[in-house]
Amino acid sequence: MRLRNIPGSREAIAASSWCIQEPEEAKGGWKGIFGNENPIHIEIGMGKGQFLMRLAKANPHINYVGIEKYSSVLLRALQKMEESPIENIRFIRMDAEDLCQVFGEGEVSRIYLNFSDPWPKDRHAKRRLTSRQFFSRYQAILDRGGAVEFKTDNAGLFDFSLEEVGAAGWKLDGFTRDLHHDAAMGKGNVMTEYEERFSAMGNPIHKLIASR
Ligand code: SAM
Fold first, then answer.
1. Residue 52 near ligand 1, beta carbon < 6 Å
2. What is the pLDDT of residues 151-176, one digit of tens each?
3. Cβ(175) to ligand 1 under 6 A?
4. Which of 66, 159, 160, 196, by CA, is between 20 and 30 Å from 84?
5. In 12-105, beta strands by DSSP E
6. What's the pLDDT score for residue 4?
7. Do 78 and 91 meet the contact criterion of CB atoms below 8 Å apart?
8. In whole angstroms, what is the distance from residue 194 CA to residue 1 CA?
9. CB 49 within 8 A of CB 66
10. Residue 203 clears pLDDT 90, i.e. is over it
11. Is ligand 1 within 6 A of the CB of residue 70?
12. d(CA 40, CA 37)
């Protein structure tokens, strides 16, 4: 993602009631933040939030938390929420490495990873959101029936991710290398911003679902 530092983005995030300002304090108490007992689904690396907002509108009985590392990117999602608020969404500006400080054991029911950064150098493999190191963080916060859903157009990252699912001791519930031509895996698919861009260029979209 092309990143520009947008002046005032940190201040806007600090002032936004859609953003959880001290997420560590929410650990174990996310249902209280939403004020209901609905399940919590998170997207890590949500970008400008198109996917999360579409999901949240379609599923008012699920609470969504969008996680994004960069203020300038998150600001775009906040601006959309100001124009058209969605009650079952909150955002956190943070690096996903700190996930276990923010969500308690079994507090999350589903994790979405969409078009995650590939970190192509081998020495950076553990930074990939589908590395075994990240699967162990996901294991700590997911509930019993919890699952991870991952989409990408990057075949190399996808192959790596398939291997990491096994190496982490997880099971593969399904996968496809051409989501938009796979009736079963593509059913109900919600497009992300990157997915729209890359599929318009003719790139096949890969998807896997993994659970513990
Ligand atoms: N998911 C969106 C989509 O599919 O349109 C955006 C994809 S963009 C390529 C990846 C996003 O993940 C960027 O906004 C980036 O800042 C964010 N990101 C990457 N690593 C992250 C991390 N460790 N924690 C939180 N966000 C991260």
1. no
2. 999 999 999 999 999 999 999 999 99
3. no
4. 196
5. 40-44, 63-68, 89-93
6. 67
7. yes
8. 9
9. yes
10. yes
11. yes
12. 9
Provide the residue ranges of all domains of the chain, joining segments of one domain with +.
9-211
- Compute the average pLDDT of residues 58-87: 96
CA 167 to ligand 1 center in whole angstroms: 24
- Indicate if the pLDDT at residue 36 is higher than 90: yes
Centre of ligand 1 from the C-alpha of residue 94, in Å: 11
Q: Looking at domain 9-211, which CATH architecture does it have?
A: 3-Layer(aba) Sandwich (3.40)
Whose alpha carbon is nearest atom 14 of ligand 1? 47
Q: Which two tokens stand for residue 162?
A: 């398939």
Respond yes or no: is residue 117 known to be catalytic: yes
Coil vs helix vs strand at 78:
helix
Task: Report whether 45 contacts 192 (CB < 8 A).
Answer: no
Percent of the chain with pLDDT over 90: 95
Instruction: Render the burial of 188-206: b for 16+ CB within 10 Å, e for the rest.
Output: eebbbbbbeebeeeebbbb
Lookup result for tokens 């790139």? 203
- Greater confidence (82 vs 7) lies with 82
Residue of 1, 154, 192, 197 to mutate, ligand 1, most atoms within 8 A of C-beta:
1
Pocket perturbation via mutation, ligand 1, pick of 117, 148, 199 by most ligand atoms within 8 A of CB: 117
Q: Could you give the CA distance from residue 96 to residue 78 in angstroms, rounded to a whole number?
A: 19
Q: Which two tokens stand for residue 170?
A: 């997880």
